[in-house]
Specification:
45% helix; 173 residues; Rossmann fold; globular; alpha/beta; five-stranded parallel sheet
Amino acid sequence: MTVQETTLHMLCGKIAAGKSTLARRLADAPATLLISEDYWLARLHGEEQRTVDDYIRNSRRLRDAMGGHVEALLGAGLSVVLDFPANTVASRRWMRGICDSAGVGHRLHFLDVPDDVCRARLQARNAAGTHEFAASDAEFEVITGYFQPPSPEEGFTVIVHRHAPRDHSGGQS
């Protein structure tokens, strides 16, 4: 039997790249807890969150409240999948501080998905009403403007998940 290392899993990818889907899959591992920013923001701020500025303000507040909690969970030996977007150097620095303070390992999962695929997924997700928040195409563009892919200088263990285009038979290639 292999002993699993306590790990903070972080997710980097544009809106509708598949971060939450991957987060749920990662959280299926033993002794692993999922903490979703969208879940908490929807329940704490719901209708109060209408603009990108609202999101930025509320997300900052949630990070301030959750940092110590996530560190305590990691310190207790639970791995955490932090489904908060690790999409800027500053957000990744905050996350790195948590795992460094807890003295645990990390994995930065980078979902490298083209913008057109993300937009199509976003439109389908909005139409289905299956996500806590619906972002418009204009909001996608604004938020994507802040996106910074991880760089080697940041020192993360990066796992890249690339989008696999569909072949003509409808399967993944």
